[in-house]
Amino acid sequence: MTPDLAGARYRRLPTSAGPVDLWWHVSPRRPPLRGRALLEHAVAAHCARPTAEVTVVADPLGRPALPLSGFPPLRLSAAHSGPVTVAAVLPVRHPGTLLGVDVEHLAAPPSAQLLDLALTVAERAALAELPPALRLSGFLSLWTAKEAVAKAVGWPLLRALVDVEIGLRPRPVLARLGRDRAPRGWLLVPLQLPGRPHTATLALHDPPQRLRPSRPHRPPLRPCRSPNPRREHPPWTSPGTSP
Hints:
Layout: E1 9-13, E2 20-26, H1 35-47, E3 57-58, E4 64-65, E5 74-81, E6 84-91, E7 98-104, H2 112-118, H3 121-128, H4 135-153, H5 157-163, E8 164-167, E9 173-177, E10 186-192, E11 199-205, E12 240-241
Antiparallel strand pairs: 1-2, 2-6, 3-4, 5-6, 7-11, 8-9, 10-11, 10-12
Helix pairs in contact: 4-5
């Protein structure tokens, strides 16, 4: 059955890793729109091709991907929370380009048990420094950033709880990735979806020039374009970059 994509909204976000096509959809009824369906819609719009020609599969790490032939290289990610589904598409400029997105919503502050489970010692300390009125939004910023990074690298959520550490102030940055205590080339973009209480974060990895592996030239595949190339929209917030 064809999913109901009426009301799907789009923004193009210019970033240092390249333009990201961000889509979001609010389902009027349960169940919410599947991330795969919104991703296929987003890829079809990006490439000006019928949705029926697009099939999103999983790569060896479980990340959404496209078949190896017939499409230009794109990084894909999707998430949902309650009725809200988000999807992101990024053209690959370098083999090390990565993309992840997450969205969450909590109506009440997290419990102490959830904080102990979800955050590292440093993250809990940073959260405790915030005024009480800001701790819920601070927790959601940390949580969505951790999960977005984990999705980008293809790690399961349980590993993200201990091996992805986010610095919260003055803006979210990736402070540690596994044993790497100075991860480079990462960009965290906090997003507020218009009219929704949800918190969303986009994580991108654009490797520094000296760390980019070379690759042989290949003839271009069928060109893609943005869904509306004459209208580009700025991001909702200024992105933070990791050192």
